[in-house]
């Protein structure tokens, strides 16, 4: 939860020092404000305190969520009273609030208080309070009575620890596994899993009930890796191949023959597996271009989203970008987003003849208007900030159903997409999964640096896609 407001003393605020204003220093009409952005984790924490059953990705306001909403309001009011006006030493006496609107993850709320009366006998102050969101819509309003401090107080702001509600077990991966628990595991050809991370990932996905792995690689190497890592290969099917190149070809052949419903990259290079997959002789190509999707969830955004293509297509053409979008829309729909909002990214949000990414974005949107791309709402060009922030979009005067609410981020090229995805994962704390679409079977494509959770989540996504392909073959 981030905070910004106009400090009483700019220099003091820069030094993280809080100073109050005493009863005698406060005049009727004095005011203060504070702004905070609420993440799904903030709302989840309030729900834990109140005991409400609140989905952290939905709005707080509903008949069953009054307590959680009240906690949100109290946090905002207490923050501005305790740090701004009157400041440290303030005693909260009473309040009367009326709730007018919902609080949603990602909302940036501004609470304002203004002194309306002073009682010299009791040293109490009454303040009108009002809260609005980033769209200037009222969230709550009312009044609060406080006992103002009589002496000056100055103290250093306390450094608070970070709290992560998901650390208690409610992780995105666990929710994903619960979502696919009713699906039967699929047979997956794992190409050359000849190191401990890739072999253990396949076996852990099996243990999680997601896949039945068919290990395609050198039996001797697989058994040696298993022995060294303490892994059990009992009852696991192994297709013996002499080297990684042969493993890729054999894994693809198993998929083409219908013996497996998905492919999974082991410790071989990505281009080895993808070259075998897209070969005309392999029989796994469809009318669409093959592309990669990162499915990401970060604490700073209220829902999962897709970044594409950050792994396969280096510098896609307009036609290839259209297929990349079609693949991403299909994935979004499979995971439950009925009409995904697609933001086509560029460095700027206006069309420039000298910037190819903006021209492609405009053309792709027109293709959607003409029915050449269906199933999603497209807008672009959009810069990253106004693609994921409603406030940023409003500041720039962008009126769009997609801006600030994107489910899919389409990057101009592989380099920008790869950097964006890895920044989100390694600096932004995003959970991730990686999958390749556009072939007749999904391909679980992960990096050697990926975590166990990423590999398991990728298998869960492949499971959903494989079951979808049974009903709607690509």
Automatic annotation (TrEMBL):
The chain crosses the membrane at residues 424-445. InterPro entries: HotDog_dom_sf (IPR029069), Phos_Acetyltrans/Butyryltrans (IPR050500), PTA_PTB (IPR002505). It comes from the Bacteria. The keyword Transmembrane applies. GO terms for molecular function: acyltransferase activity. The keyword Transferase applies. Residues 248-462 form the Phosphate acetyl/butaryl transferase domain. Keywords: Acyltransferase, Membrane, Transferase, Transmembrane, Transmembrane helix. This is Enoyl-CoA hydratase. It comes from Achromobacter pulmonis.
């Amino acid at each position: 939860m981030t905070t910004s407001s106009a400090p009483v003393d700019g220099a003091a605020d820069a030094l993280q020092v809080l100073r109050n204003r005493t009863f005698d220093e406060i005049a009727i009409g004095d005011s203060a404000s504070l702004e905070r952005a609420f993440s799904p984790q903030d709302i989840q924490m309030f729900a834990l305190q109140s005991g409400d059953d609140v989905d952290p990705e939905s709005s707080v306001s509903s008949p069953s969520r009054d307590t959680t909403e009240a906690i949100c309001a109290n946090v905002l009011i207490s923050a501005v009273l305790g740090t701004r006006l009157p400041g440290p030493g303030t005693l909260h006496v009473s309040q009367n609030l009326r709730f007018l609107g919902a609080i949603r993850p990602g909302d940036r709320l501004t609470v304002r208080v203004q002194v309306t009366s002073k009682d010299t006998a009791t040293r109490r102050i009454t303040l009108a309070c009002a809260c609005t969101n980033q769209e200037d819509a009222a969230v709550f309003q009312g009044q609060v009575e406080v006992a103002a401090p009589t002496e000056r107080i100055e103290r250093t702001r306390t450094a608070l620890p970070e709290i992560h509600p998901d650390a208690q077990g409610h992780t995105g991966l666990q929710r994903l596994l619960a979502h696919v628990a009713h699906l039967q595991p699929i047979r997956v050809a794992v190409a050359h899993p000849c190191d401990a991370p890739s072999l253990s990932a396949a076996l852990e996905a099996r243990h999680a009930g997601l896949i039945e792995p068919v290990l395609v690689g050198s039996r001797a190497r697989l058994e040696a890796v298993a022995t060294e890592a303490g892994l059990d290969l009992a009852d696991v099917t192994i297709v013996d191949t002499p080297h990684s190149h042969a493993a890729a070809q054999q894994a693809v052949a198993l998929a083409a023959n219908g013996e497996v419903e998905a492919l999974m990259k082991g410790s071989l290079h990505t281009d080895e597996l993808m070259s075998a997959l897209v070969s005309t002789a392999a029989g796994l190509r469809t009318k669409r271009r093959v592309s990669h999707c990162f499915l990401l969830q970060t604490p700073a955004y209220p829902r999962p989203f897709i970044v594409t293509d950050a792994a396969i297509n280096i510098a896609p053409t307009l036609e290839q970008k259209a297929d990349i979008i079609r693949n991403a829309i299909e994935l979004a729909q499979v995971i439950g987003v009925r009409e995904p909002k697609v933001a086509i990214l560029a460095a700027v949000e206006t069309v420039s003849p000298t910037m190819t990414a903006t021209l492609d974005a405009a053309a792709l949107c027109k293709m959607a208007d003409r029915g050449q791309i269906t199933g999603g709402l497209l807008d672009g060009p959009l810069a990253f900030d106004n693609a994921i922030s409603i406030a940023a979009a409003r500041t720039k005067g962008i009126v769009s159903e997609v801006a600030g609410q994107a489910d899919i981020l389409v990057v101009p090229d592989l380099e920008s997409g790869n950097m964006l995805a890895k920044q989100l994962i390694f600096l932004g704390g995003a959970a991730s999964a990686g999958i390749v679409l556009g072939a007749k079977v999904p391909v679980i494509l992960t990096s050697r640096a990926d975590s166990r959770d990423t590999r398991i989540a990728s298998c869960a996504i492949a499971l959903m896609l494989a079951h979808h392909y049974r009903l709607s073959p690509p």
